[in-house]
Amino acid sequence: MEKIFKRIAFCDIKNTFFDLSNNEFNTQTRQSILEYTKQGLLFVISTSSPIYNLDANQNLILLANQLNSRYIIASNGAEIFDAREEKYLKTTCIDELIIQKIIDFSKEFNVKIERSYIKQYYIDKDEETKNNDCRKNITSLISILCSFDNCKQIYQKLLNLNLPIEMVISEKTILITQKNVSIHNSISYLIDILNTDVKNAMAIAYNDNDLIAYSKIAYLYALDDATIPVKNKVTLFSSASNQNGIGEAIIDYFYRTRMMAEMAEQYRIKNIKLTKEIKKQTRSNINRKY
Question: What residue numbers bound the domain in which 142 lies?
């Protein structure tokens, strides 16, 4: 099937447009996102956070709706969600045997772990489970909380266990998903569902892990307050997150892809006309028979 040109942007919520501590948007950035989603942009939240975090009282579905953002990649890729239809496109849980080994590991090395669960209601839409928070045997993501000093040591010890898992390390957290589950792979999955091309997509890079998550994205922008490795790697830049860097990146992205958008629109109109002509000719042939 021939791929369709779509403008699509991937962006995390952390350190970019939403202040988790104050539970509020950057107003200017939100306005920019809403303006360009009206012009056809698909704005995809892609984050390590779970769809529904009970402890943080955070609901990514509500955030997405406030941004006119239909799709969410959450739990570091373990959850791909359609916020408009309120349904999962794909979920991947961590095997229970692996979970138990990680629990045993955490006890041995005295580190705290947190488990993120897939919200059951959105799996089966069963009214009986609508008020249940989560089904506790579906773990999408495990977070290991460690100090800045020992996070790398813990990470290396986990590697030595040779478990079939993916890990993303930051200063004080190690995020664990099932093998081959990542934001990077989930982007590819969503791109295929939408029948578009990652070469036409954009993303906002802020921290080092974004370079891996968005490695296939053609239009990768670094915000001015991004980490040094990010700035050294990318070729497109925007202002800081608190200066509407995301909005300015989207403006630049729309300008850079304007010719592709015009060609895609011409092709779409041509196909509509061709389809009408075929239907007209078909009706004419039928009338001649009778």
Answer: 96-123+134-178
| Residue with token string 């070469």 | 199
pLDDT tens by residue, 93-113: 999 999 999 999 999 999 999
Inside any domain, residue 283: no
Of 186, 216, 211, whose CA–CA distance to 198 is shortest?
A: 216
Work out whether strand 79-82 and strand 87-91 pair parallel, antiparallel, or are unpaired.
Answer: antiparallel
Q: Give 67's Cβ-side CA count (13 Å radius).
A: 32
Whether residues 205 and 69 share a domain: the answer is yes
Residue 52: the pLDDT is 76
147 lies in a domain? yes
Cβ atoms of residues 112 and 106 within 8 Å:
yes
- Give the C-alpha separation, 168 to 213, whole Å: 10
Contact present, 139 and 93 (Cβ < 8 Å): yes
Lowest pLDDT segment from 12-16, 50-54, 58-62, 227-231: 50-54
The identity of residue 216, as a single letter, is K
First to last CA, the chain: 36
Residue 52 lies in a domain: yes
Range picked from 125-129, 194-198, 282-286 for highest mean pLDDT: 194-198
- Return d(Cα 255, Cα 232) in angstroms, integer: 24
Task: Look at residue 2 and tell me if it is in a domain.
Answer: no
Please state the pTM of the whole predicted model.
0.87
